[in-house]
Design goal:
By secondary structure, the chain is of the alpha+beta class. 42% of the residues lie in helices and 17% in strands. The chain has eight helices and six strands. The termini are far apart.
Length: 224
Amino acid sequence: VLFPDWAEQMVKAFDNDSIIGVTGAILPLWENDSLKWLPEPMYWLISCTAWTNWDSIRLVRGVIGANMAFQATAFNDKCFFSADAGYIDSHKYTPVSDDLEFSLRIKKKTGLSILFTPNARVWHRVYNRRLSFRYVSAKSQEVGRCRRILKRTYSSEFGSYGQEQHVLRSIINCLLENPIEVFKRPKIAWNKFVLVFIILSSVLVGYIMPKPMYSPFKNEQKAN
């Protein structure tokens, strides 16, 4: 759900010849209040951006699919999102996120950058199934596999694992920063503990089992 000035802010962000793609702030539009206990460092599970702590314009690794735009030239030479990457159907993922893979491929192809602007805002619908065991496990495994595969495929464009280290520290801090919550809100404290355990174990499984022969555009290569 776009904010009224979304298009205007996107156009402003492209007022630079070095920018090929833009992504913006994504705010949760909850299905109901039962999910609002989710700590902001875990908002990557619901495709919202609070986990980044980005509050100013900056260059970033790639777009986030719920809020993105590209220059038309990004799609020259039949350069499209890979049909072999990304979300397939309910609770099923391939090893690589299509939005991030496309971002890194475009940066490598053009030598241009991707920008984050907090002013181009959208609301993103968050349904209860986003915190089911099946969804969280599948999403976390995808993140582990995705980062290892894309780091290998697009080393320069991917950069360091600094972003992932920030997320890991933030997730662990969620458990350590407020032990009083165990007594005041035991159900929420337990939910956080279980969620962190599922995330960390699933990311680890995904990272150490990256499907090394996987290509995020294998069918496109065969077609060509």
